[in-house]
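User: Reviewer 2 asked us to show a designed sequence for the structure in our supplementary figure. I'm pasting the structure tokens here. Could you produce the per-position amino acids so we can include them in the response letter?
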């Protein structure tokens, strides 16, 4: 029986090692490569021709969603799954729109992750429980204005809403504090906010509305 080749794309070595051990236990699957960045992932797809790639949304300075779009453009035959720490439905919707066939949160059981891989390889859509593909309702900015944010801008916006300071956001996303501030400036411009106080207020309002 020929094995389906899986490419792992995650910027955390321990996650790549864990997934490699998990997937290689399956008789019909084999990890053919692992990448920590978008550039490495595209090179490995060219070299290894995997059947499926498992991609994290946050890849240091890169965006997993942007990588999905690039893979679908260059290698439409490769099936894609997002494996992410983000449980918000907005990320799942963006991933599917970009071309992913599945969205799995990292707290899922190992059996569910393997099930997701098999489902997507078979041409089906797989979503972690709780996702319905709709945008969350919020109490401040409407869905259309939030949707104008890039995937990384959305990450920063939600982290602000959860109370993280810019320095901590930088640490969590593996980017500099100056880069976080650049994203904050772009968010203010897109949401038509005048200053950091308004940005923080809208981020908190969005986060509170999303939980309702």
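Assistant: Here is a per-position design you can include in the supplement:
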């Amino acid at each position: 029986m020929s094995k389906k080749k899986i490419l792992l794309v995650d910027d955390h070595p321990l996650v790549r090692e864990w997934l490699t051990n998990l997937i290689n236990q399956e008789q019909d699957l084999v990890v053919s490569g692992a990448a920590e960045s978008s550039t490495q992932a595209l090179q490995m797809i060219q070299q290894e021709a995997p059947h499926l790639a498992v991609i994290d949304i946050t890849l240091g300075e890169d965006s997993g969603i942007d990588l999905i779009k690039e893979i679908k453009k260059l290698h439409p035959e490769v099936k894609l799954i997002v494996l992410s720490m983000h449980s918000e439905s907005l990320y799942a919707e963006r991933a599917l729109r970009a071309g992913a066939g599945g969205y799995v949160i990292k707290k899922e059981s190992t059996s569910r992750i393997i099930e997701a891989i098999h489902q997507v390889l078979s041409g089906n859509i797989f979503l972690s429980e709780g996702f319905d593909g709709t945008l969350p309702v919020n109490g401040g900015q409407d869905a259309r204005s939030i949707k104008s944010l890039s995937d990384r801008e959305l990450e920063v916006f939600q982290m602000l809403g959860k109370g993280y300071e810019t320095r901590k956001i930088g640490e969590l996303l593996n980017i500099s504090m100056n880069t976080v501030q650049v994203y904050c400036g772009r968010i203010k411009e897109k949401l038509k906010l005048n200053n950091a106080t308004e940005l923080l207020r809208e981020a908190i309002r969005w986060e509170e509305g999303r939980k309702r």
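For the response letter, you might also mention the following. Confidence is low (pLDDT under 50) at residues 132-141. The longest helix spans residues 196-210.
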